[in-house]
Amino acid sequence: MNTSLPELHLTSNFSFLTGASHPEEYARRAALLGISEIAVADENSVAGIVRAHIECREIARQVRLRRAHDETVGLIGPPKPAHLPAAPSADIFCTPRLLPAAKIALRDGFTATALPTDRTAWGRLTRLISKGRLRAAKGTCDLGFEDLLEASDGLHLLLHPPATRATVQRGAGAWQTQAQRLARRFPDHVSLLLAPLYDGQDAARFARLTALSEQLAIPTVASAAPRMHHGKRRKLADVLTAVREGLRVDQLGARALANGEQRLRSPAEMARLFKGHEAALIRACEIAAACTFSLDELRYEYPSEISEGETPAARLSRLAHAGLKWRYPAGAPERVKAMLQHELTLIGKLRYEPYFLTVNDIVAFARSRGILCQGRGSAANSVVCYCLGVTSVSPEIGTMVFERFVSEARDEPPDIDVDFEHERREEVIQHIYERYGRHRAGLCATVIHYRGKRAIREVGKAMGLTEDTVGALSSQIWGWGAGAGIRDDRLREIGLDPGDRRLQQTLELCDEIQGFPRHLSQHVGGFIVTEGRLDELIPIENATMEDRTVICWDKDDIEALGILKVDVLALGMLTCIRKAFDLLQSHHQQGFTLATLPPEDPAVYDMLCKADSVGVFQVESRAQMNFLPRMKPRSFYDLVIEVAIIRPGPIQGDMVHPYIRRRNGEEEVSFPSDALGEVLGKTLGVPLFQEQAMQIAIIGAGFTPEEADRLRRALATFKKRGNVSDFHARFIKGMLKNGYEIDFAERCFSQIEGFGSYGFPESHAASFALLVYASAWLKCHHPGIFACALLNSQPMGFYAPAQIVRDAREHGVEVRPVCINASYWDNVMEPDGKGGLALRLGFRQIKAMREEEATWITAARGNGYMAVEDLWRRAGTPPRLLAVLAEADAFASLGLSRREALWEAKAVTGATPLPLFAGDLDGEAINEPKVTLPEMTLGEEVVEDYVAMRLTLRAHPLALLRHILTPGAQPEIP
Length: 974
Known about the structure:
By secondary structure, this protein is of the alpha/beta class. It has 41 helices and 18 strands.
């Protein structure tokens, strides 16, 4: 028997709440056990196979490094380099190969593991899964036997035996009929799965199944059918089952695993388990040898974007040069022309023209609909994208080198994110679906993992802890912490016994489940668009959101396979800026765009230096407000740094204070070498951007392009399992070898490590800085219009409407209340009678009011309403809404106080006028006795304003209390 055997049916934790091991763990364990091939076969899904494939590639890379090292030094088994993850390569018995597979479960219970033999068969498998998932709601699949029969050409099918012993003994029935049909249709591609249940009855079971296979004339195939890579995961497997079933672990009964044997098995163990059934083991080897398909064969074909016979290269060149004339009406500088030609040449070499054209077409659609957008990302801040209108950041402002992002040496795909107005992004998304078809376009997935509080909550419930105990434990978890990280003294403080066995087990299991996938969600906007059928590349399924379809791989998976995506993202500030531009055009006849705003306005920087930035994009937080007076930005590039520096990465890496000291002349700006001086010159020797971190690793530590790319991926693993510290030894050794001091090397790595928490690329910072400048310019020169647009774009930003209104009034803006005869749904600017504009609050500020209700009121208003009853008669406003308007004091312009208006609104109780108000039978009017209502105090008015609208124009609430809080002070009554 072979010393290396395949495992053809693994269940990973991407069979959510069933499998108890990561796909990567199976790959590493297989390498240690000497398993030649592994097939990760999750139920109606291929979501986890890319991770196993990547891990197999990493293991192969480690083995190559080991062999190269051994050949160099003539030694066997030296220590593993510290920067390499996973098991030491000296313990690796083989480099396993991933066999892409899926467990296909039909609606009638018939189940088979499908393994594609080639690329065409893979396409059939993914289309089969897509068909089932698009028929059903998110997370479910609906497939029938005829679907499987139609799609199984080129697939090896491992039929799971019928569930009960009686069915096996009868040798007849629906299952046998289906198995025979498949065997006749696909001879030599159908096998019966032999998998132990480890219940003491496996020998008899194997004998019955072998007899059944002879009766059906199909061979048997051996599999351990593991649900975990190691037996130590048995407890976690039971917890996952309890969560799935909504039970406690002690209620599982027969649903729990009987033992820890359903794990990955070595070839020797498989030979022992299947003694007397060696033919099943041989069949497994034959199938593995026949399945030659690898995920590396997936060749992503971007839409050709050929238009009217024009090649993509010619079309991109034509559009870029036309855009150059548009951007530079007086003629482009020679430097910019040279940069454009250089970028077009590099894009042509790498054949990325279709990608840039697709982004251009999406942006062009948005512009045709008046949707404001702004590109950012590694390739977005380029001359090409500037000329195409994808970004409004001039290449003369940026400091980026195009090859740093689109590199011929690395052959990495470009990355362009496009932000759209958050209220209108759905129009763009649906346009992409309509243009390319749902069979060619889909959103990426996002894997939702077990972290912190979710782990405590679900594991604690499964373990039988009380809700009070779970709540107390949850209160001790911050961010992404693990359960085992809670100290014993903290447990005692919240009234729990650290020595309690159940509590200890719960915390250990919470720590173990960290990082397990819980379910798939949709990416915020990462679109995959293909030339051919997307569902023959990746399965497609329905998202929870209506009219959305998604693929099952996340952005890291598709990046690993070289698949390009376009990020179609939403940004509230773009909505605000576009509405502000519309107001400027309407009231001042000024037609601005992001690219035509007056540049480098000193008044704007003066305002920012005073931290007057309420509502300004990216610099409105308290941390940014504290930093602005210290930074004292005076140029656009200062804003680029401002955006990037107040982030968890630079803060944790201790980059903020050194930069400020150097900027203020308190510390000398020095560079350890001329080479690093070129990298860090514009940031005064302090690494602030991810690109600089990579350059330090390449230039200072001698990282190869491959190692630098792995470092980049580690820097991008925010909230994930990546660890920048894996590179520590390699980095320090490289820096020392190149002559740098140990203290400098450690400081550099500490700063780079900070990016693992959250770093910012310079390309993104430059795009965001433009929006900082645009929003600050609007606030500086048109505070009323800016406040109006900001209010009309809610919800967004840090500040509530009350704070926005208060800030606008402090800047001299007259703000007028909601008025039944002057307000619209949106807040508007209206003449103030003094040659200026006043901000009129709209009905959207009333909490209990909907837009369609406001539309009816404004449409029926005509020359104005004279009484509360007019709204009821003319606009059909229901009594409930009349009361809402009265409570918001919207009838003040009619001479009615809040209570008077509410009194009249309460009198309207029906759909038709009552005789009491319409007149008696003789036609004479009946007058209601006059009622004198007590006048509300200022404090009562303020409270009612906040109840109805969450803001007031009367007085600050604290102004009514200050005389109580401050001895001797007088009440501040406006």
